[in-house]
Amino acid sequence: MTQASTGPMADVRDMYLAHTMMRREFRLLPQLVRDVAPGDTRRAAVVSDHAEMICRVLHLHHEGEDIVLWPLLLERGGAETAAVVPTMEEQHHGIEAALKRAQELLPTWKATARGGEELAAAFEVLLDGLLEHMALEEKEILPMAEKYVTSAEWRRLGEHALNHSPKKALPLGVGMAMYEGDHEVVREVLTHAPLPARLIMPVLAPRLYASHAKKVYGTRTPPRVGK
Q: Where are the alpha helices (DSSP H) in 13-115?
């Protein structure tokens, strides 16, 4: 077992922000698809663009865990982490397969607004796997991360997503997380951002999500589903 380097340990509260956002957006997605009238390609494009965005967020979130988190836990946690990390990795594979299937169906549906039930069902399969995974992660993995992963190492998870996301999409992504997020945690996350972002993001990001939600959901305040 290898010990973490000295320094403050991970503050995992930002993971709950991400999980709450994904619970909300992926729970609402199947019905969004079903509500599009067959042949209404304009509306299908709006929903599809939203779906593509949150699918990208999910993929990068899990890719960061695969690259950064699982190796650190397996290296340092001994039998404690070895008992659960392989299950998390297996769940990631299942979620990625479900994600890939939905992404395969999206382009045709976006272009034709037909086949929506098949796409909605694919997103429901994805949702089932995702909810199970996040619940187990919160119960088992996050307490381990607080024990075995430093704050600096934990930030690499967020940096992976930031470095591989379109820069113009980042403020909206922050707004999606802030919508149900603990403001104290949001402020803590932003302390590591450049000064201009720290000043403008708390004002800009919620406005961008409200505008996006109005376009996607027909309301600036979509249902807060939390857990």
A: 13-34, 41-64, 70-76, 78-82, 85-112
Residues 6 or more apart from 118 whose CB is under 8 A from it?
Answer: 105
Please identify which residue in the block is written with the tokens 């079903």.
34
Domains and CATH numbers, the chain: 13-217 (1.20.120)
Contacts of 64-72 spanning 24+ positions with Cβ under 8 A: 64/156, 64/157, 64/158, 64/160, 64/161, 65/92, 65/157, 66/92, 67/160, 68/153, 68/156, 68/157, 68/160, 69/141, 69/145, 69/149, 69/157, 72/4, 72/148, 72/149, 72/153
CA dihedral sign, ordered 208, 213, 219, 222: negative
Contacts of 106 (CB under 8 A, 6+ apart): 48, 51, 52, 119
> What is the rounded CA–CA span in Å between residue 162 and residue 198?
15
* Residue 129: strand, helix, or coil: helix
* Angle separating helix axes 13-34 and 170-178, nearest 10 degrees: 100
Q: Which of 36-45, 61-70, 179-188 has the lowest mean pLDDT?
A: 179-188
| Helical (H) or strand (E) element with 181 | none
pLDDT score at 5:
55
Q: Over the stretch 154-203, which tens digit does the pLDDT of each residue have? A: 999 989 988 898 888 989 999 999 999 888 888 888 887 788 888 888 99
d(CA 171, CA 205): 5
The identity of residue 184, as a single letter, is: E
Non-local CB neighbours of 131 within 8 Å, separated by 6+ positions: 23
